[in-house]
User: What shape does this take?
Amino acid sequence: MGEDRIKETAELREILEERIQRLETELSGLKTILKFVNEELIKKSFRKIEPPKTIPQRQKKNGKSKKGIELKTTKGVLLANIYLDNNIMKIITAKDKKFDANTPPFEAFFIKKVLSKMKKRDQVDLNNGTIKPEEALNFSVKTDTNIIKEIIVQNISPERKQKISSAARWTLEKMYEKINDG
Assistant: This one.
């Protein structure tokens, strides 16, 4: 009876190992599908920004004019203007809008999930020696009694410009909706 029990236990172990392998394969597939779904949600959630050449807004600095990109709601309400100068992006909120820095999703999404995450990635790359200190992303938010006036993102790579612009537009639109609903 001892030998039969060992044989049954060995068969059970084999069945369990096969089941674990199938579940691990299924989990891997589910993770791949989830990644795809998340990427699609990001693509569909963010509206593409119009190219700067179609936008007449300008900011003067040292006598030079720079083209700006207007960030508007889906209904066409101006939220902010983005000015790009080499590797610096300035997001200046519309003068008639009062975006409180405490209004969601500004801190939780735009600051923590977008800008801070990029900054942390750059810090890892900096520690690994794959980028120089002057290439690491940095940002600041200028406020006047919690009202956002300007967001400055420094050392922004060309690949990140569209993502940050789209995230800023989405964030400001959600904040605008909360301000106007409340």
Observations:
- Confidence is low (pLDDT under 50) at residues 48-65.
- The two ends are 75 Å apart (CA to CA).
- The longest helix spans residues 2-45.
- DSSP finds three helices and six strands in the chain.
